[in-house]
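Lab notebook, bench 4. Still working through the backlog of constructs that have no structural model yet. Next entry is a single chain of 83 residues. Request: give me the structure tokens for it.
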Amino acid sequence: MVSSDLNVLDCIELRYSVGWPCNIVLSESCHNKYNLVLSFLLKLKLVVWSLHDACSRLNRIGERGLASINLRVDLSQEEATDK
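Model written out:
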């Protein structure tokens, strides 16, 4: 994953309109902070998903590799007993 891949998520933001009196507390700067938190959490979720995907792929490759190693060991043991 390239860092620019994470920047794709910056275009997602949460927008909503708040009426009076809530708009006193939930100002525009508050919306901006919420969007920063949302962006960070989305990026974090993407990183976790990517790591999980990479781990799963490596495990599958490792299982295939172990199977072929075990097969080679079994074949070489059979050849040794045949002699």
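Notes after review: Residues 18 and 26 are 7 Å apart (CA to CA). Residues 3-82 form one domain. Flag for follow-up if needed.
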